[in-house]
Structure formats: C-alpha cells, structure tokens
Amino acid sequence: MKKILAAIIALIITTAFVTGLAASYVGNANSKKFHYSDCSFVDKMNPANRVNFNTRDEAVNAGYVPCKRCKP
C-alpha cells in the first residue's frame, strides 16, 4: 500500500511540473513584476494577483519586469 501511495504522489508531482502547475516564475498582476517561484515576495503576494509563467521570456513578453531582489 505504501508503494502505491508513493507512486501516486510521485505521479502527481511529475504531472504538476510537466503541465506547468509548478511555474518557474510568478508575476504580480498589480505591480507587473515577476519573481522566481521561491522569492520571498511571492509568499507575501495576494494569491488572486498571481500570474504563473513557465519561462522568463513569457513573463517579459507579457509586459512584466524582473524583481530587483531575486533578479530572475
């Protein structure tokens, strides 16, 4: 049973990364700044304002500017 549960969890995590649910960059719709997903500003951000980006170019092309703290 533990092996099955471990396999299911691994599949969910892998699927999240492949489909972009675990975005590499997170933008703030209000400030139009984007951050690495582990930047401390992301934790302080209102979840309603979060915009996920898979690549840096995607964020820049959407008009977002890089965070001055984490420098993505």
What descriptive keywords fit this protein?
alpha+beta
Q: What is the fold's blueprint, element by element?
A:
Layout: H1 2-19, E1 25-28, E2 33-36, H2 40-44, E3 50-53, H3 56-61, E4 65-66
Parallel strand pairs: 2-4
Antiparallel strand pairs: 1-2, 1-3
The residue fraction in helices comes out at 40-55%
Shape: elongated
Cα-based radius of gyration, to the nearest Å: 15 Å
**Could you tell me the mean pLDDT?**
84
Counting DSSP H or I runs of 4 or more residues, the number of helices is 3
How many β strands by DSSP?
4
Order of helices and strands: HEEHEHE
Classify the beta-strand content into a percent band.
Answer: 15-25%
Give a written overview of the molecule.
The chain is elongated and about 50 Å long. The longest helix has 18 residues, at about 1-20. It has a domain at about 25-70. About 15% of the residues are buried. Strands 3-1-2-4 form a 4-stranded mixed sheet. It is built from 3 helices and 4 strands. The protein has helices at about 1-20, 40-45, 55-60, and strands spanning about 25-30, 35, 50-55, 65. The mean pLDDT is about 85. With about 70 residues, it is α+β, with helices and mostly antiparallel strands.
